[in-house]
Amino acid sequence: MKTMNFKEVFELADTQTDTSNISDFAGQLWTQQIVKYGEALRRLDQGCAIYNELVGTGAVTLTVPKSTSHKDVDTAKSGGEAAVRDHTALDNLDGVDFTIAVTDFKQGDVTVTKAAEMSTMIDLVGQARYVVAEALAQDVDTALATAMQSTNVTNVLWGGDATGVDSLETGDVLTTDLIANAMQQIEANNFVPNLLFVNTKQIRELRKDSQFVNASEYGSDRVVMRGEIGEYLGLNVISTTNVPTYSATATDTNESSTLWAVAGNTCIMTGQNKMGANVGPALVWKEMPKIGYEYEMEKNLHHVYYDQTFKAGIVQPGAMSLIKVAQD
What we know:
This protein is α+β, with helices and mostly antiparallel strands. The chain contains five helices and 14 strands. Strand 12 (about 280-295) and strand 13 (about 300-315) form a beta hairpin.
């Protein structure tokens, strides 16, 4: 006869905890592995500049310097051979301030009771860590998606013959022509188009287009980025459900008070400078993401903590283009 250990006996007994959603686990044998929910794929950080200068300091404002225009250097030498050279002032610099506010300090706590943890084979503390890790990543991507729709971004295109989100119609979906036009907007500002973030609805349309190159056709020497499903004219196309999604009559962020006529998405194209650096959106860290753990003896509670502090924004709006299209 098999001898049952204490834990097996405890799992067969009725639970004495009143914790919501845990009492149903008692008296049953559960597999230890939890089938995870289909979380959104975090991708947007691949198109932004990342700054860590505030981490570990007492400062709360980081000024990101940027050049505002091309600067011609005066190379003429007037006054003859003995004359001094002409001077050119370096006056084409400006700065973008990222200031950390109290509301930028993100913090959370997922708790699991001792009774709940000991009354099931499921690793509830491990699941709590997973939940916190997903929240850390999702919050960054969501903040970036919002920042990338800044009203400072004036490179904007719409599907079909629309001139705003209020005139979009069903069928005004993403096309390769729209992608080429958005690339030209960025190139007109002397930046290099690099990434295009799209929703799965737009991926469906691109897959039907013979001009779109699937990622599986790149070959073994091609480095494929996270979420990358293909390319067009050298532009990497990234799929994520975190791109801005609007329902009909919702207010558009970039176009201020304008309402969407149909349900749609804003596809975001980002570019780099000639040196290969991301220069459009930016993410400034004050406190890097971390997961903490503590067991509270007095209350018999496992605590899994969420902590991170950051600010998302735009440095060079000209290195971005927004393509607004209908979902169907």
